[in-house]
Amino acid sequence: MRHTALFLLLCLLGSFSTLEGRNYTRLVNLFIGTGGHGHTHPAAVVPHGMIQPGPDTRRLGWDACSGYHYSDTTINGFAHTRLSGTGCADFGDFLLMPTVGTQDVSYVQPKEGDIGRCPYASSFSHENEKAEPGYYSVLLERYGVRAEMTATERTALHRFTFPRADKAGFILDLDYAIQEQYNLEMDVEVVDSFTVRARRRSLWWAYNQELFFVARFSRPFTYDILRDTVKTERGDEPRCKLLLHFATREGEQVLVKASVSAVDYVGAERNLDSEQPAWDFEGTRSAASRKWNEALACIDVQSKDSEDCPSEETVIFYTALYHSLLAPSIFCDVDGRFRGMDLAVHTKAAGEPAEANYTVFSLWDTFRALHPLLSIIDPAANEAYIRNLIRKGEEGGIVPKWDCASNYTGCMIGYHFASLVADAYAKGYRNFDVEKAYKACRRMAEYNPDGLTAAIPRWKLKTEIMPAARLYKNERGYIPCDLENESVAKALEYAYDDWCISQLAEGLGDREGAARYAGLSEAWKNYYDDVTGFMRGVDSLRNWRTPFDPCRSTHRADDYCEGNAWQWTWFVPHDVEGLMRRMGGKKVFLCKLDSLFSVSSELTGENVSADISGLVGQYAHGNEPSHHVIHLYNYAGRPHRTQELADSILHSLYAAVPDGLSGNEDCGQMSAWYLLNAMGFYQVCPGRPVYSIGRPLFDRTDIRLSHGKTFSIRTSGNSREAKYIKSVRLNGKRLRRPFFTHAELTEGGVMEIEMSRRPTKWGR
Fold first, then answer.
1. Element housing 499 (H / E)
2. Cβ pair 50, 358 in contact under 8 A
3. pTM value > 0.85
4. Is-contact 624 563, C-beta < 8 A?
5. Do 623 and 663 form a contact (C-beta atoms < 8 A)?
6. For residue 399, what are the CA distances in angstroms to 263, 449, 589?
7. Which of 121, 201, 243, 650 is 20 to 30 Å from the Cα of 569, by its Cα?
C-alpha cells in the first residue's frame, strides 16, 4: 500500500501537464504485479526495449521469474535482461553490484526453499526505492550506495553514488542467472582501465542463449578475475566473476554505460556508441520518459476525480498499458544484424526496409487480448510482428509459438500465429505477405517434422515443436487422451486455430482449404459429453475418460492445460452458437454458465495447477482460457450478467498494489484484458472483427487511432453502483445489440453509454 499512497501524493503535489499535454508516466505504478504471482518487475526499460536493467532480489523459485519480488528485503545486484509477467524464467544476464569494503564471493549451496540470495547481497527498504517508466533507483543499505539506472532500446546507463571509501568497486557476476540455468560458456575481458566486455552462453528455457556485453565506467579501476569450479547438487559447475576496485570520495558518482548484443562484441559496441554516446544520465532518463509518454498517449481516460489526483482505476489502467508495451522485445543490433531461429547471424538484405527483429512472443497468452488491442492502438506494429514471425518461420522451418531469445521453447499449446494473421486480415490490415502467412499457418497445423532447423534439440521436436497430437487429429479425427497429454485443451485450441485458417483460405479464394479447415474447426464436438455437460477426454477406443471430476487438475499432466473441465468447456470462441445448441439451447447454456460462477471454488487433485487462480466459482481469471467467458452472456441474451461480472472482476481482481494481479501478467495479456474491458468492450473471437460490450469504467475514453481519427466512449450516470447499461448510441444512432464492429470503431466518432443502477432490457 505504501507505493500506492506515495504515488497518489506525488500526483497531488505535481502537475499532470507537460508541454505536449498530459503526463501519462505519472499515472504508472511499476510495483503493481511485483508481489503475489504477477511476476512483473520495476526495471528501467523503454517500450519494447532489448535491455532491462533493474534490481534482482531472488533467482530461485517460481516467483523469481522476473528476478524481482516485492516481498524480498535484499538485492543481489542489477542484471540487464529479464522477462515480465511470465510463468517460466530465463535471463538475469550480467549482474552488476556496487560494493564497499571486502567483496564476499564465497559459494553457499542453496537449501530447499531458498530464494537464491548472494553472499554480497545488500538489504534495502521500499521507503528508499523509486521506479517510474524508464528509471529505477534504490539505496543499498549494506554499502551506503545509491543506485540509479535508465535505458535506451539496447543500452543501460547506471549512476552509483558512493560514500567515502578506500575499498569501493563492483562485482560483475557472469555465472549469476535467474533460476538454475546451466552456464555453457562464460568469458570476460578487461579491454582497458575503463572498459570491460563479457560473453555468456546458457541453457535453460532458452536452450542456447548467447549474449554479449560491453560496459564502460566513468572512472578507472583495477581488477581481479575469479574463475573456479564449485560442487553443487547437479555436479561440478564453473564460476566466473570480475571484481573491480577503486577508491571514492564522499558522494562521488560513478557512471556505467552498458549494452548487450545477441550477435557479437562488435554489435554491442556499436549499440553503445550509437545509443549512449555521452555520459548524460538525466538526458537519457528524460528521453526514456518522453518515449513512454508518447506510447501511453494512445488512449486517454478520464473520470470524475482524475483532474486533481488519479483514481485507482486510472493508475491500474495506465500501468496495464505500460505492461502491454513491454513485449515483444527488440532483438537486433543498430546495424540491423540479429540472431535468427536457426541461431545463425542474419543481416538485412540490400533493399529491405530497416525493420527491427523481435523476441518474446507469448502467443498462447497474447492472441486473446493483447494483439486485438494492438490492432486498435497500433495496427502497424501488429503487422510488423506478423512479418517478423513469418521470417522466423523461414529461418527455422516453422513459426515459433513461444520464441525466447530466438529459441524454440515450444511452450504451451495451439498454433496461434493463425489467430494473429486471421484477425489482422479480417480487420483489413494486410501489410505482410498474406500468401506466405497462410502457408506458414498450414505448416503449423500439419504434422511434418521435415525441414526444421538443426538448431532445435531433437527431444523438443515431437512433444513441443511438432506434437504428435496433430497427426492423431488428421488420421483419427480426434486426439485420444490415452495417447496424448492435454488432449482436450489441445483439440479445442486446434479447432479454433483451424477455423482461423479457414477464414484466411476463404479470403484468398482457396475453396478446398477453406472447406478442409472449416471441417476441422468442428472437431470440438468430439469432446462434448451430453450427459455431464462438459468437455471430456476420449480414449483410443472412443470411451470417455473415467473417473471424471470437472474440478480436478493435475498440472500439465491431464486432459486440460493449466485448467480443468469447468474452465475449458467454454473454449469454442468461433462457434458460440454451436456450443449453445449442443448444450441444449439458451436456457440450458445460461444455467450452465451461471453455475460456473456460483459453484464451489474448491479444486481437487494431487498436483493442482498453480495457474488456476483468481477464482469466481470455477471461473479462473488468473489464467487465459477463461478470459472470454463473461462475454458469452451477450450471445445468450443476458447482457446485464456480462456487465455485472465485468464490473466485479475489474474491481476485485485488479488493484494498485504489488499483489494487484490475480495471476501471471503474461507479457501483457492480463493487462490487455483489463484495458479492453475497462474501456467497455472485448473481442471474444479474434479473427471475427466484432467487439462485445461490457461495462465501461471511465466517464470518458478517447482512443487515438493511428490514422488520425478518435473513437470516444462517453459514459453518463456512471458510478460504482451504476454498473448496468441503460442505452447506447453510436454516432447518434441507437445501438440495440451488445456488439459493434472493428470497422465502426476505426471510422471514429462517439459511443454514448447511459448507465443504470439496475439491470435493464438493453441488448437483449
1. helix 487-507
2. no
3. yes
4. no
5. yes
6. 21, 13, 37
7. 650
